[in-house]
């Protein structure tokens, strides 16, 4: 599992130089920061790292999001991914990114994500936060 995660992280960072990159902060009871890159018209793979934790409880998530609907102001996505360390398991995010300003680089987002853990059952995480896109000219 760790080899798969390492390969996914390396692959994500190698793609950052070729596509639009976004950073985000998600506020919830399990807050995290994320970095993603858009691949083509529909795919948003994202690496997420838990925040507000002791280092030994630092959690990593790798999620592949598919944009169900996308226009200049908003993106609605559905995804599937994995989570390691605290609450290890499968993550199924459903969310919306909204960019209300004239320059479409800063925006807001909301997400609901069931986490199906391998040993603790399931929990439901809902988050909101901010997102910044590094737009290419």
From TrEMBL:
This is Outer membrane protein beta-barrel domain-containing protein. Residues 1-19 form the signal peptide. The keyword Signal applies. Keywords: Signal.
